[in-house]
Amino acid sequence: MRRSLVLAATAFLLCLGGGAAMSAEPGTVEGPEQVYNQAMEAYSAGRFAEAAKGFEAAYGMISDAALLWNIGRSWEQAGELERARDAYRNFLGHHDVDAELRVKVADALVRVGGKIQARLDATTQAARIEQLRREIREAETERNAELIRKLEAQLQREEAQREAEAPPPVVTPEPVVTPEPVVTPEPTLHQSAELPARGPHPMSWVALGVGVAAAGVGVWMLVSAGDKRDTVNAAIDGAQQGFVTQMSRSEALQFESDANRNATIGVAMLGVGGALTVTGVILAVTTRRKGGPAVSFGAIPGRETTMLTASGRF
Fold this sequence. Notes:
By secondary structure, the protein is mainly alpha-helical. It has ten helices and three strands; from the N terminus they run ααααααααβααββ.
C-alpha cells in the first residue's frame, strides 16, 4: 500500500510538472488510500487548504516523504506560505527520495521564500495593500479562486482600516468679509488748466549734432597724425638700414610738426564733441514735457464754510 501511494505521488509530479500528486489506481479501500484520494479530489476542485489537511492525514498514516511535496504544494496554493515552506524543508531533510523531485522541491522552496520575504518587507499599510494586490494578480493568472477570495478579504480589511485611521479632511472656513461703510463725498467744484505736451528743446538737437561732428573731426585728426608719424618713422628706419629715401630732413620735420598739430587738434575736438554730446542729451531729457493738468483749483462747500484748494505744478 505504501509503495502504491509513492508511485501515485511521483506519477502526478511527472505529469503536471509541479502540481500535487494524482490519485492512485482504484483498487483497495484501505484508510490511507481513501484519505489520499479524497485529498486529491479536493485539490482538483481547487480546495487547496482541505487538500493539504488530507495529505497531512495520509502522511501521518504512512510517513511517506513523497507526500510532503503534495502537502507543500497544497499549502502554497492556499496562500499559507510558512506551512508550505516547512513541508518543503521537511522533504529536503530526507535523502532517500527521487533526485528529480528533490530539485523541484528546492526550486519551490526558493520561490516560497521569496514570497515570504516580500510580505515581510511590506512594513507599512500602503506597502501591504500593494503586496496584496500583486498577489491577487498572480492568483488570477493561475485561476486560483480560493486564494483570490482569501486575499481579497485581507485587502478589504486593510483598506477599511486605512480609511478608519485616515485623518478627517481639513475644512478651511470661508473668510468673513465685512463691508466697508459707504461714505458719500461732499460735492466739490474743480477747474484745471492743461499743459500741452512738448518735445525736447531745439538746442538739444543742435548740441548733439555739433558734438557728434566735432568728435568725428577729432577722430579723423588723430588718425591723420598717426599716419604722418608712421611715414616719418618708416623713412628714418630705411635710412638707418642704408636704403635710399625720398624724404629730406626738412620734409621729415614738417611731417612731424603736422602730426603733433593734428594730434593736439584731434584731442581738443574729441573733448569738445564729447561735452556737446552730453549737453545735448541732458537738454533733451530735461526740456521734454508731457501733457497734463498743470494747476487744479477746487472748492469744497461745508455747512458753514467753504474750503478752497489748489494743486499742480507752479
